[in-house]
Design a protein that fits this description.
2 domains, alpha+beta, single chain, seven-stranded antiparallel beta sheet, 210 residues, 31% helix, two-stranded antiparallel ribbon, globular
């Protein structure tokens, strides 16, 4: 992977695991508009620039003092519930790079801290080896998503992001968008038999029929 591309991904992971992950984590998912509504644009830009510099190992980055806390960088196996749900999403089609992504999933690990079951879920990230088949399209949200009803009776969706042809992360959000920058009552990833699968079509999302 190109060093600059790797630096960008490392920076986004740092942001997602920062103290304000529920807000700034949306940068990787919802783009700059969400972040600009939550914090000053200059602060977001400075934070991302500093994180990218640290990820590249720039000497000047030692002068930066960010309030993100110390991330957990130790790699570990994917949580079984994350792996099962991701595999189920990718198994709903053989198109959109699904076969390559399933091959990646089988070899993926994560650098996320172990999930505390008392805390809500939002992201789960993937660390994919360099010598894997790459998916096409290379940068996209996978068109199959999992929907389920949370303990609060609200509808949620789990979607999968692909960056540079590799699995990047899964993200949980309210279907109406309300959970993107807010805390949800969801404390565990749903099992495949607890969700319905929807795929993007020219008419909009439709249930997967298999």
């Amino acid at each position: 992977m190109d060093p600059d591309s790797r630096a960008r991904r490392e920076a986004l992971r740092l942001v997602r695991r920062g103290a304000a992950a529920s807000v700034l984590g949306g940068l990787a998912w919802a783009g700059w508009e969400v972040a600009r509504r939550a914090v000053p644009a200059d602060a977001v830009r400075d934070r991302l620039g500093g994180l990218a510099a640290r990820a590249r190992g720039d000497a000047s980055s030692s002068e930066l003092h960010l309030d993100l806390g110390e991330p957990t960088w130790e790699t570990r196996a994917l949580d079984e519930d994350v792996q099962a749900l991701t595999d189920a999403i990718l198994s709903q089609t053989e198109d959109y790079g699904a076969l390559a992504l399933r091959a990646q999933l089988a070899r993926s690990v994560t650098a996320d801290a172990p999930h505390d079951p008392r805390q809500p879920i939002d992201f789960a990230t993937f660390e994919v080896p360099d010598d894997v088949p790459l998916a096409v399209p290379a940068d996209a949200e996978f068109p199959v998503r999992a929907r389920f009803v949370g303990p609060d009776g609200e509808a949620y969706v789990v979607a999968l992001r692909v960056d540079e042809g590799r699995l990047a992360y899964v993200r949980l959000a309210g279907i109406d968008g309300g959970a993107v920058d807010g805390v949800t009552p969801v404390r565990a990833w749903p099992a495949p038999d607890q969700v319905t699968f929807w795929i993007d079509t020219i008419k909009g999302p439709e249930p997967v029929l298999r």
